[in-house]
Structures are given as C-alpha cells and as structure tokens.
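pls ignore typos typing on phone
calcium ion + seq
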Amino acid sequence: MRKSTLLALAALAFFSASAAQADSVNLVKNGDFEQTTNGTSKQLSQNGDTSANRTQLTDWSTQGYNFVFGPNTADTTGSNGLTLWGPNSYNGRGPQNGLTNSPTGGNFVAADWDYFPAPITQQVSGLVAGQSYTLSFSYAAAQQVGFTGANPINYWDVSLGNQSQQTTVLSNASQGFTGWNQASMTFTANSSSELLSFMAKGGPTGAPPFMLLDGVSLVSAVPEPSTWGMLLGGLGLLGFMVRRRRHNAA
Ligand SMILES: [Ca+2]
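k done
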C-alpha cells in the first residue's frame, strides 16, 4: 500500500472522529427558545404564573421579569408592550445602536437584572457524573425603551448544579446595545441530572437593563464512546494495512 493511501486513511479516521464529536447531542432542550406556548413574544411566566397573558418557554422555567422576543420585534412591537432601544424604536427614530437579532436567529430571551430579577432554568438530564461538558451560548446587553443611563456592568451568572461561572462583563451605554458575544464554559457533571441556571447580574441599579440570551448548547467535552470506537477502528485498520504492506514487501 502506498504511503499516500495510508495518510488518506489516517486523515479519514481523524476527521470521522472530529465530525462525530461536533455532532455530539445538545443536552439542552429548546436552547434556541423557538418553542413556546401561549404566544411567541409575550412576557414569560413569572413565579409559575400560567395565566393567559404569560408565554411559556417549553422545557424552561422562569420566575423573574423575563421576556422572549420574536425576530425583529425587540425594538418594534416588543414583548408584552416592553421594547428595547434600537434603530426602530419610536417608529425609526431610535438610537443607531446596532441592535440585531441573535447570531442563531429566531426568538431570544431578555432578563432584567434590576427589577424582580430571577433565573431562567432547565433541569438537564443525560449527564454522566465526572464527565466534562462545554456550555456555549450567545449573549448581549441592551436597555429598556423609555429609560436612560449607562450600565457599566452586565453579565450572566451561569450555574450547573452547584458550580457557578460568570460571562465576561459587558458595559452598555445609555440607550445602547453591546453587540452579541459568544460564551464557552466547561462544567463537570456531579450527577446524571442537574439544574442549568442563567441569572442576569449587573450594576448600578436605576438604569433599566436587559441581558439577552440565545443559542444555548451543552455538549460532552470529550469524544463520545462511539467516537473513540471509530478512531480506534480506523487506527486498527491502519495497523493491519501497514502489516500487510510489510508482508508484501518481504
Ligand atoms: Ca433563537
């Protein structure tokens, strides 16, 4: 067998493993917030309130002054009458602050860290104790229309079970929008089922802020057992061919 063929096989084994890892299952359900009941862009259920004027975010629980915005609605029709500063606020007379839909599109969540703040949570199952997981999501900071004042500190306090991590702190100008950022955190599971929690934090108070969130994904940080199988299978095939090549050469 030619060396080039062996190299091609090695590359195939490597990329098969990489592809399988990239395809790892997202253990967070409805991480893009596209599945809702009782309306798509209303205020989220507060304190378990399931009354007619509250939207339920499928697979998530919300308690605070939290909202879900449909695409292109944050600075237009808003959510339950609440809107964010953006180019379309006040019929196109809003600040040119660059407010956009999230990188993954569709609905996104907005949480106020100043007014009745409370987390957005989901019980995640299918974890393996002791295994590392990569949590990734898109986030930004914005401000409620009708209010002014800079918010120099805005971040998400994120926890999985009893472990907590914080995103990079975003500083938002009065009537501003920070642009979307990408977070990547590594957590180690302690049991097969743990609570994933996003709590908006910031300061100082008095300038109504919102933390935005979308595209939440939690995947295994190490290759799945099946991936190792593919990788080892590929290496075994290589070894067999190398041996056969030597045998033929002899
Ligand atoms: Ca989305």
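Residues 32-34, 102, 104-108, 214 surround calcium ion (CB under 6 Å). The first strand starts at residue 36 and ends at 37. more later
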